[in-house]
Amino acid sequence: MIGAIQIINKNPPEGPGLFTEKDRQLLEEVADYSAKMIQKVHRPDVKMSDTELAYYLSRLTDHDYFEIADDFVPDDKLMNLVGEKNLKKFLVLPVKKIGSQAVEIAISNPVDFDRIDNFRWATKLEVTKIVVSAESRIKKVIDGFFKAESTGIDEVAALVDSEFGADVESIELEEDVNEESTPIVQLANRIIEDAYSRRASDIHIEPFEKEVLVRYRIDGVCRVALKLPPNSQKALISRLKIMAGLNIAERRLPQDGRIKFKEFTRTGIDIDLRVATGPMVFGEKVVMRILDKASTSVSLDMMGYSQHNLEIYEKIIDSPYGMILHVGPTGSGKTTTLYAALNHINSPEINIQTAEDPVEYMLFGINQMQMRREIGLTFASALRCYLRQDPDVILVGEIRDLETAEIAIEASLTGHLLFSTLHTNDAAGTVTRFIDMGIQPFLVSSSLLLVCAQRLLRKLCPKCKEQYEASEEEIQLLEHLAEGATLFRGKGCEACSGTGYKGRIGTHEILTMNDAIKEAVLRSASSEEIREEAIKNGMIPIYMDSMEKAAKGITSIEEVLRSVRKS
């Protein structure tokens, strides 16, 4: 706590806010008790504005007075660092950052030590200097800053609500949702911009009987972002379908499309969105997957691999031929990791070709093919085509059936390095899944180089994570870590929208083939036996890899238990 202030100015200037000697004594007393009610210092018979009061308090307590002019511009980085919630809660204005973890602040009451201490605790910033300003001026700056920073989505939604809230006929035709239909056009753009700024991976627009819900999937969890009147649904969906090049008159069947957002905005946001519509009971639902082009520049060391796993993975993907598989549920980061692997090995000396459904990102120097099942262009037919096009490396988006699996194994056995994905839960189960599909065990043991099972874990917010001592139950979950281990959890803050988490990181288990595992495959051993052999061969189970990340303060025990099953 900041110590009691020192009353140096014994003779503040005469004026309407004159303080008596009794006032000074009271101020010293109140300061010693954290000055919970500074108003007790001010004589009730004297009428003063908050500007006058701030000035006299600054003189009386020997703090500088800071005049906030009408044209005052706050430091935007510093304002965002402290966060809107903290600024509005404590009515403290950060004036200047000092070093990496300290600030100078303006406050209306320099002896309100409770408020200053709570501010320091909430922001994890040291307060090294205090200046005094009028509370009304501080509030005006804070409100003005965050109003200017707003994306405008709430304002646009209000316009839509006023236009479509009544029982009016919904917009039906393409010409009705063109650039003249300002609220709907603006709303469609603002939803995408807002979701992108909040790091959402998907946008869900869901019609219900009494409202339309807009939800964002952020760090793997859906959150409600907006509620709209039900009559706005057709107009909004029609606008998004136009942007995606879909048929707005067809509402009975699912449709897939793609939005190049740069063509519809002046913000400079260069993203694509994969759009999927589906007929629901109360109208069409739209899901948009945000494809950030910056994701194509990711490298393997950004994928969350432990040093042990990264060394193994980088060594195997430099092999001249064989099969490398990434497995896990939808949304576990398989595509991003595969792109990182292709970026790692890509060079002018080799020919890389991919078969994808859909092509999510464009990769320079790599030949990519979009699957079109409606005309017979499948993974299997694309693979047959590629085998005649002199490839060195082939990526197949997913092995879905026996035919694709057989051609993929043929490619990996004839001098090609093949990457693909499969929907299985763990690395060992992938081996038996191939055999269950009808592939001969000797082909699996001969072609397979590596299986990487993966998940995504939410990372603890760096601004609000805090240490705590592990309980006995948590120590048992950690297994190999020593007693007394220090764990971390997120409290929730403005930066992470109160969730305690911000961003995600991969967690993995990597199975590589050796003679013992090949022998187990040849005799059609169970996945449990293969798993035991893999662990003997150095495989770290995904559960333990995840717990290592919890022990290092990257994620929490709760997040590991939510995302990863202990085998």
Automatic annotation (TrEMBL):
Indicate the segments forming the Bacterial type II secretion system protein E domain, all copies.
387-401
| The keyword ATP-binding is assigned to this record | yes
GO MF term (any one): ATP binding
Q: Which Pfam families match?
A: MshEN (PF05157), T2SSE (PF00437)
Which keywords, in A-to-Z order, does the entry hold?
Answer: ATP-binding, Nucleotide-binding
An example Gene Ontology CC term for this record: plasma membrane
Family membership: Belongs to the GSP E family.
Would you tell me the protein name for this molecule?
Answer: Bacterial type II secretion system protein E domain-containing protein
Source species, please? Candidatus Glassbacteria bacterium GWA2_58_10
* Taxonomic path: Bacteria, Candidatus Glassiibacteriota
